[in-house]
Amino acid sequence: xxxxxxxxxxxxxxxxxxxxxSCFNEALSVxxxxxxxxxxxxxxxGGNIDxxxxxxxxxxxxxxxxxLIKNTYREIYNSSEKENTKPFEGVHETLKSLEEKGILLAxxxxxxxxxxxxxxxxxxxxx
Length: 127
Prior knowledge:
The structure is a single chain. By secondary structure, the chain is mostly helical. The chain has helices spanning 17-30, 38-44, 49-57, 63-79, 91-100, 118-122; strands spanning 4-8, 14-15, 86-87, 104-108. It folds into two domains: 4-14 and 86-122, no CATH class; 17-79, DNA polymerase, domain 1 (Orthogonal Bundle). Helix 1 (17-30) crosses helix 4 (63-79) and helix 3 (49-57) packs across helix 4 (63-79). 16% of the residues are buried. Keywords: Hydrolase.
């Protein structure tokens, strides 16, 4: 019998909060919305992009504003260098150990497949 370990990606395997926050603030700023502090974002991150943008926009949450911020954020995030995004401490070693024991590894994420780049980020698996 094969064993399988399934992990969430952002906030479990990968610490992407700084880059996500920066890209959301840029998306808000270029569209004339008030930016938020890191602490305000950390209270709102964790769901899917619709939930996050809804919480960010609060009183200005309309369908048009949601689409505008989501699309702008995606453009900015997808073209960014993601300099601050990295696996949490100990992730490489843990995943490598599981892989060496023959345990299959999987990621469950709200991200698009293109934005995952698992082998490059985690140095294991073959995506």
